[in-house]
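Bumping my old thread because nobody answered last time. Still need a sequence for this structure:
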């Protein structure tokens, strides 16, 4: 792998803060010649720019991300980001409110599916209990 840019390093730091070392280490172990450019793009772009900005807190970014992933039906990514809420400070109540917005603005089927995913994760983990 090549030397990394400052933006990549910023993105990797933020990615680790939000998703955790264990998750990022697993994802990084799967980098190969084929997907390395994509992984660099993801780390520099979403994590190095959007998630590392100072206009919103990580909690706020989590809430918006959860809502968007739920609205678009991206269950696997939604699950990852709901788990990450424990590290960003977004609570079960925050997630519930985000999913209520999904129901109103993106449709009940999308929100219903997202609620099922969230409830399963809450049952599996000791999620931030702030209500």
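Sorry it took so long. Here it is:
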């Amino acid at each position: 792998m090549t030397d990394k840019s400052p933006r990549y390093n910023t993105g990797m730091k933020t990615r680790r803060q939000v998703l955790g070392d264990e998750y990022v280490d697993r994802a990084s172990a799967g980098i190969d010649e084929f997907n390395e450019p994509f992984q660099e793009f993801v780390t520099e772009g979403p994590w190095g720019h959007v998630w590392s900005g100072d206009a919103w807190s990580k909690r706020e970014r989590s809430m918006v991300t959860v809502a968007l992933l739920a609205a678009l039906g991206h269950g696997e990514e939604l699950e990852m980001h709901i788990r990450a809420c424990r590290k960003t400070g977004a609570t079960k109540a925050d997630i519930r409110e985000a999913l209520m917005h999904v129901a109103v603005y993106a449709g009940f089927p999308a929100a219903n599916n997202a609620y099922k995913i969230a409830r399963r994760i809450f049952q599996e983990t000791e999620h931030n209990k702030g209500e």
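Residues 31 and 39 are 7 Å apart (CA to CA). Let me know if any region looks off to you.
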